Amino acid sequence: MSTEPQFIELMRALATGPAARGLNDDAAALNVGAETLVLTHDMMVEGVHWLPGQDPADVAWKLVAVNLSDLAAKGAEPLGVLLGYSLGDNDVRFAAGLGEVLAAFEVPLLGGDTVGGGPGRAHGLTAIGRATHVPVPDRSGARPGDSIWLTGTVGGAMLGFDAVRSGLDDPTSRAAFCRPRPLLAEGRALAPLVTAIMDVSDGLLLDASRIAQASGVNLDIERDAVPLAPGVAGSGRAYEALRWGDDYQLLFTLPASVAPPIPATRIGTVGSAGQFPVTLDGAPPDPDLPLGYLHG
Ligand SMILES: Nc1ncnc2c1ncn2[C@@H]1O[C@H](COP(=O)(O)OP(=O)(O)O)[C@@H](O)[C@H]1O
Ligand SMILES: Cc1ncc(C[n+]2csc(CCOP(=O)(O)OP(=O)(O)O)c2C)c(N)n1
Ligand SMILES: [Mg+2]
Asked: Which positions are annotated as binding Mg(2+) 4 (predicted)?
């Protein structure tokens, strides 16, 4: 079996048009007449993205939210979604959660496909958006001297996952894992200003390394500047929170003179490319630990 990066490399040879952006971005950007459509697709798999026994309404919420998060990171306004659904237990609960998330973010369901499920069910969703700013911001414009910024905190999903796994009925800590909120308004406000932007799905360090690689720079993160979700600080899991993922915050770079128009924390500085795409307080990350979450 291939790893996720190996398979994407095979796809990269096929996705050669400009709209695919070299498969180096959160979404495709397709010019259609005077508009630019922003298109993304993410899947969720039982046992990989949700635990067997989790409320299907939460799975539906997250499936839509993670895709809208990719639109948010490109400053796009959602136009609609298409659902690929595997039948299983409690399909009615899934439909209820889908209704909630579509209403919460005012996104229409446009269609989809339904198949018989089995163990290890997988659902997919395509989200279609309209660019509110062109050029659609990508990951490649970070320049030495830029500041690195992050919305919100990291580590909340990691703690929420533990709460779900241990059956803890604490809605606040579960919410970060079960019901992430795509930062659509924030992404739209940032799109005209940023030099690079993406959403943090696979872990702050791994996603920062993607901006670094796309931009041909180093991202140096100040460890103590990274805002941690309540409960992470002092738990001994601060470094894990930088690598766990599923937090769906926006990570972006701005020229040093530009202040973000939305609440965010400055977490580091862009430097020239060096041996490591990402450093922490000038030092390489722990070589024995992955930077974030990769499939395969
Ligand atoms: N099976 C696939 N076929 C074509 N493109 C893919 C496939 N899997 C991933 N990609 C592309 O590879 C890039 C990286 O994917 P991914 O890391 O999943 O992005 P994101 O975290 O924004 O969802 C994106 O451009 C995505 O569209
Ligand atoms: C049961 C379970 N175990 C572990 C995780 C953690 N996890 C699984 S995939 C993932 C990264 C994000 O998923 P991915 O499919 O890579 O999304 P993308 O980057 O394509 O948006 C994380 C943090 C989880 N969500 N659920
Ligand atoms: Mg993806």
From this structure: 26, 40, 70
Residue 182 to residue 144: CA distance in whole angstroms: 29
Burial 148-162 (b: 16+ CB within 10 A, else e): bbbbbbbbbbbbbbe
| ipTM tops the 0.90 cut | yes
CB of 25 shorter than 6 A to ligand 1: yes
> Do both 108 and 176 map to the same domain?
no
Same domain (yes/no): 112, 162: no
Task: For residue 25, give the ligand nearest its CA.
Answer: 1
> Which tens digit of pLDDT belongs to each residue from 260-284?
999 999 999 999 999 999 999 999 9
Tokens of 282: 């000038």
Ligand 2: residues with CB < 6 A are: 42, 47-51, 66, 161, 201-202, 244-246, 293
**How many structural domains are present in the chain?**
2
Residue range 72-126, pLDDT digits in tens: 999 999 999 999 999 998 999 999 999 999 999 999 999 999 999 778 899 999 9
